[in-house]
């Protein structure tokens, strides 16, 4: 069989079938000529997945193309860009229902009209899609005060690989009894279905937003951060930035306070009177730019990974990163943990780091990378014995035809 002839013929056949299913406006081609479906409802997304399952087509899911590169091998591209509606905002219930392709920036502007906000600040660009943030669970510095991405997702609708629509969670802020399928989708990298829409937990828009920074040797700053946590002085963000990421000559520890004017000023005064660290407030007109630079820094190399370390292990883990990779673009939750590294490295070097981290009970998640790296290592790979079998069973349940092209585990563990 001549592959160079067969793939275009298959793509043309898929294009024709999708056009009949979604109409002219619902289908186009990507930069490589692959047929690309652009469903604008969860039902349409379900139909596309069902057709792919029946025909045995491999699917690559794409959002707005600002985080994971669109390079996984596939017969068909499924884009969420047409799933961009902010369906509803309910300030009284502190809930918004949003389609997965809506951008963070569009949601921010819409919520501001209601005096509300979503307390997540993921790495990358503000035009990232909501679905991308949830599927990759890429939390930013605000996780310190407001929790990880999963704490902001009340429920979601997901199209499985064989076209079923699964409604998980709900639209109210409450505990969920039993196994919560919503949590499976947060950080699942699309391996358990394609997110169509989500119900998000909101908060009142803070009236004050103040950031203070301290500069100095890394170990001094991490010690200061742990001291702050020990006395229950908890900023909304307490992030350690490497010199390269902060564009400074020294390491930077940034404390961000959000809330009412009175509460923020009280916390700022308390911070200034605590310890020997010299804190400098950022001018109000520089605060947004400072955090934006930190967020975009995670695009400064082709590979981004995170290490799930606890607060008291930050220094040791950064030492490990420096030894196995480099100390370039690093951010860390200095008080409560979690480290993000961006750069470039050979696959064997990354695999060695994962083994070294696992020996210390530290999971390593590959947040973004070119497909060859994702395929070799997997997004979260084999961390503990038995995890691979569990992931495999879950994938069989949500994608029985293995239509979704996602490398949750590396080639060595698949």
Label this structure with key terms:
single chain, 414 residues, alpha+beta, Uridine Diphospho-n-acetylenolpyruvylglucosamine Reductase, domain 2, Uridine Diphospho-n-acetylenolpyruvylglucosamine Reductase, domain 3, Alpha-Beta Plaits, 8-stranded antiparallel sheet, 5-stranded antiparallel sheet, 35% helix, globular
Descriptive account of the structure:
The chain has 414 residues and is an alpha+beta fold. Among the domains are: 3-79, Uridine Diphospho-n-acetylenolpyruvylglucosamine Reductase, domain 2; 86-204, 2-Layer Sandwich (Uridine Diphospho-n-acetylenolpyruvylglucosamine Reductase, domain 3); 208-276, Alpha-Beta Plaits (2-Layer Sandwich), CATH 3.30.70.3450. It has helices at 3-22, 42-55, 104-113, 130-136, 143-146, 181-185, 218-230, 243-246, 261-272, 284-296, 314-324, 347-359, 371-377, 387-398, and strands spanning 27-29, 35-37, 59-62, 76-79, 86-90, 95-99, 116-117, 153-159, 165-169, 194-201, 203-204, 208-216, 237-241, 251-259, 280-281, 303-310, 329-333, 337-343, 364-368. It has an eight-stranded antiparallel beta sheet with strand order 15-12-14-13-17-18-16-19, sandwiched between helices. A five-stranded antiparallel beta sheet has the order 5-6-10-8-9. Helix 11 (314-324) packs antiparallel against helix 12 (347-359). The longest helix is centred in the first third of the chain and has 20 residues, at 3-22. The protein is globular and about 70 Å long.
């Amino acid at each position: 069989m001549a592959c160079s002839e067969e793939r275009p013929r298959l793509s043309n056949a898929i294009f024709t079938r999708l056009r009949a299913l979604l109409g002219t406006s619902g289908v186009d081609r990507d930069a490589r000529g692959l047929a690309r479906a652009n469903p604008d409802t969860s039902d349409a997304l379900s139909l596309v997945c069902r057709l792919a399952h029946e025909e045995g087509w491999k699917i690559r899911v794409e959002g707005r193309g600002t985080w994971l590169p669109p390079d996984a091998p596939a017969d068909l591209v499924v884009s969420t860009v047409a799933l961009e509606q902010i369906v509803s905002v309910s300030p009284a219930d502190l809930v918004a229902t949003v389609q997965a392709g809506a951008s963070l920036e569009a949601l921010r502007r819409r919520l501001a009209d209601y005096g509300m906000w979503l307390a997540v600040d993921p790495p990358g660009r503000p035009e990232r899609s909501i679905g991308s943030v949830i599927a990759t669970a890429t939390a930013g510095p605000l996780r310190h005060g407001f929790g990880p991405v999963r704490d902001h997702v009340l429920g979601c609708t997901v199209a499985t690989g064989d076209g079923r629509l699964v409604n998980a969670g709900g639209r109210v802020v409450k505990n969920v009894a039993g196994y919560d399928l919503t949590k499976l989708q947060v950080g699942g990298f699309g391996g358990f279905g394609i997110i169509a829409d989500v119900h998000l937990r909101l908060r009142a828009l803070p009236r004050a937003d103040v950031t203070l920074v301290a500069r100095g040797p890394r170990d001094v700053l991490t010690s200061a951060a742990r001291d702050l946590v020990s006395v229950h002085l908890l900023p909304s963000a307490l992030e350690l930035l490497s010199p390269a990421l902060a564009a400074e000559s020294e390491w930077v520890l940034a404390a961000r306070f959000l809330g009412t004017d009175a509460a923020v000023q009280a916390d700022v005064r308390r911070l200034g009177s605590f310890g020997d660290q010299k804190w400098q407030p950022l001018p109000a007109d520089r605060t947004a730019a400072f955090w934006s630079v930190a967020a975009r820094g995670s695009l400064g190399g082709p590979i981004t990974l995170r290490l799930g370390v606890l607060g008291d292990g930050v220094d040791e883990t950064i030492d490990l990163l420096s030894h196995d990779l480099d100390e370039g673009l690093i951010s860390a939750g200095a008080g409560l943990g979690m480290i993000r590294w961006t750069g470039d490295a050979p696959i064997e070097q990354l695999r060695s780091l994962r083994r070294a981290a696992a020996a210390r009970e530290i999971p390593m998640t590959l947040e973004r990378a070119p497909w060859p790296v994702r395929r070799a290592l997997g997004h979260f790979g084999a961390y503990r014995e038995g995890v691979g079998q569990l992931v495999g069973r879950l994938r069989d349940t949500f994608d029985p035809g293995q239509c979704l092209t996602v490398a949750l585990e590396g080639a060595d563990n698949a």
